[in-house]
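Chain A, query sequence.
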Amino acid sequence: MKGRAIQLSDGARVVVRGANWVGDAVMTVPALRELRRLLPSARLTLATRAWASGLFAGADFLDDILTIDDARRGRLRGFAREVRDWRARRFDLAILFPNAFAPALVARAAGVPFRVGHATDGRSSLLTHAFPLPEWHGARHESFYYLNVVAELEKLLTGGSTVERSEPRFDLRADDDARRAVEETLRASGARAERPLVALCPGSTNSRAKRWPAERFAALGDMLAERAGAEVVLVGSEGEREISDEVARRMRVTPVVMTGRTTLAETAALLSFADLLVTNDTGPAHLADALGRPVVVIFGPTNPLTTRPYSPLAEVVRVPPECAPCMLRDCPIDHRCMTAVTPEDVFARASRILKGKKAA
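Chain A, predicted structure.
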């Protein structure tokens, strides 16, 4: 099977193993769109975590979403369930976006005839076609890394690739039902529709080092409310509720706290209403960007070259010391990359964006 030409009939059943984090999931959107262009008659199924279902529900580049078993039910039990689900659907081709070993093992155990992905994490023997890491990996935006998988597949199928020359297209659309529910929640919370709506995301689920200090988010929130006349709403996942509550306690102006109260689909709906999102380098930054909303992202330990929102609507605020980007999840010294950014710095960017929207 190794190296054998990939042959797909019309209506071929193709499964794409999706990314495991919100930001990464959004960064796969251009690759999924190119895959639909490459395989217009295939049935494309996205295998993804339950939280991502709302993100991709109704996406015009997918036919189906297969929810991956919750890891909390047990690693071995979840693996067995996933293998059964894949085998039952009799997929012809598996495209693996994550670098991890486990998705390749699932595809192999499920008997998927063709299995493609990057040659990472010692999984090459499980893939029928293992693609070498591109030499530019780490020097270009992460969306191109996922696009590279589709480009390599296109070369196998057609002998050439147009994917490599394509500009990434990220656009997503918020669910209409979720928009109506969020609109009602905002109204019930006392948010005034005539005022600019600014969302703040002070958390980050996988790194404390990426968090701008809570007191600075609070100071910024007060500036936005008092100087820019904005309605301030705090967003994030349940795991970010503690930091969000701290920001709310420190603010003089009471914000609307939506952190932990929304599904991902509802978070997307909320961001679709926002005139601006100010956030750490985390998933909502990419989500708002894909929804066509302005974003200001505060960067510290991570690399904006590879993980910033890929849009002219997104602005990066960064005062990097010599040690950045370190990519560490916890700062071993004084968190200087984030504390160097002041509320005045961020407010200046935010105010300029809000004034521009008012003038338009």
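Residues 142-158 form the longest helix (17 residues). DSSP finds 14 helices and twelve strands in the chain.
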